TrEMBL record:
Gene3D superfamilies: 3.40.630.30, Nucleoside Triphosphate Pyrophosphohydrolase
Stored InterPro entries: Nudix_hydrolase (IPR020476), NUDIX_hydrolase-like_dom_sf (IPR015797), Nudix_hydrolase6-like (IPR003293), NUDIX_hydrolase_CS (IPR020084), NUDIX_hydrolase_dom (IPR000086), Pre-Nudix (IPR040618)
Protein name: Nudix hydrolase 8
GO molecular function: ADP-ribose diphosphatase activity; NAD binding; NADH pyrophosphatase activity
Taxonomy of the source species: Eukaryota, Metazoa, Porifera, Demospongiae, Heteroscleromorpha
Residue intervals of the Nudix hydrolase domain: 111-243
Pfam families: NUDIX (PF00293), Nudix_hydro (PF18290)
The species this protein was found in: Geodia barretti
PANTHER family per record: FI03680P (PTHR13994:SF13), NUDIX HYDROLASE RELATED (PTHR13994)
């Protein structure tokens, strides 16, 4: 169940009931524009009256947005059974499930980080590697791909291009998606998806960002794979690049309008057909886990 606001208000003649917005799931969305500047006591009184009416009307999930500037309202909402859903730097969202005859169907908030790395290969078959400053201080020899967390609104390859330039000064362009890694319990109990984009260098001179990067270098791809200190994950990523070259197939994005609202879908897919070995394994061991 996804929260989505509409313009339809919850109508009630009683003055204490907040005139909130509704969503397509028979939910209620209450924001500062509906309750204005109220004291905690007045807010609690009116919210209690509103919850009773909304429950009578068969409303389901209640979403209450409280800005940081009115954080004194949080205890009032909590007293009435609302729980924290998520928070941003300037507001938090609290929720309450009203039906008593069905389980709470409100969705959890986002539970994945998205990281993107650039696998940059030059004309000599060398991959661009970096060593993070904080790992260098710990005397850990860990050469990795340039990359970082995606920013809101960025395409995945835009993150790879931006992070590569910020860390190494090397300008690049997107070629294809190589692979991605999924990790549980990455940070603060949140999972992580780490995408790796194949990038073509437009420049090759390295200028490291001293705030983040201790060293950066170009290294032969085969040497990186064969280095015993290369992590298993990074070795597999580098091997996926070689496999892609051998098969002539990489993962490519296709963009088209989304079926709902003014948005777009971006589908990444590989059109490499299954070979005989692939078909044999899929027939005998469908959905085999690595």
């Amino acid at each position: 169940m996804i929260m989505a606001a509409s313009s339809a208000p919850v109508q009630d003649s009683r003055s204490d009931v907040f005139q909130a917005d509704t969503d397509q799931f028979k939910g209620v969305i209450l924001t500062p524009q509906h309750y204005g500047l109220l004291s905690p006591t007045e807010f609690e009184r009116r919210l209690q009256a509103s919850l009773a009416v909304w429950q009578e009307e068969g409303r389901r999930g209640v979403w209450v947005k409280i800005p940081l500037t009115q954080s004194e309202l949080v205890p009032s909402a909590a007293k009435l059974g609302l729980q924290f859903h998520h928070a941003h730097c300037d507001h938090l969202m609290m929720t309450k499930w009203l039906p008593t005859s069905e389980p709470n169907n409100l969705p959890d908030f986002a539970h994945h980080y998205i990281g993107v790395a650039g696998f940059v290969v030059n004309a000599e078959g060398q991959v661009l590697l970096v060593q993070e400053k904080w790992l260098k201080r710990l005397s850990l020899r860990h050469w990795k791909l340039p990359g970082g967390h995606t920013e809101k609104g960025e395409e995945l390859w835009e993150t790879a291009i931006r992070e590569t330039f910020e860390e190494t000064g090397v300008k690049t362009e997107f070629v294809a998606m190589l692979c991605f890694r999924h990790m549980h319990e990455y940070r603060w109990g949140t999972d992580d998806i780490y995408f790796v984009c194949l990038l073509r260098p437009l420049t090759t001179d390295i200028t490291v960002n001293p705030a983040e990067i201790a060293e950066a270098k170009w290294t032969d791809v085969n040497a990186y794979i064969g280095d015993p200190e290369t992590t298993t994950t990074n070795r597999l990523i580098a091997q996926s690049y070689k496999d892609g070259l051998a098969s002539g197939s990489f993962i490519q994005p296709v963009s088209f309008p989304h079926f709902f609202a003014n948005k777009k879908d971006l589908v990444f897919y590989s059109n490499r057909p299954l070979d005989e070995e692939d078909r044999r394994k899929e027939k005998s061991e469908p959905h085999t886990k690595l």
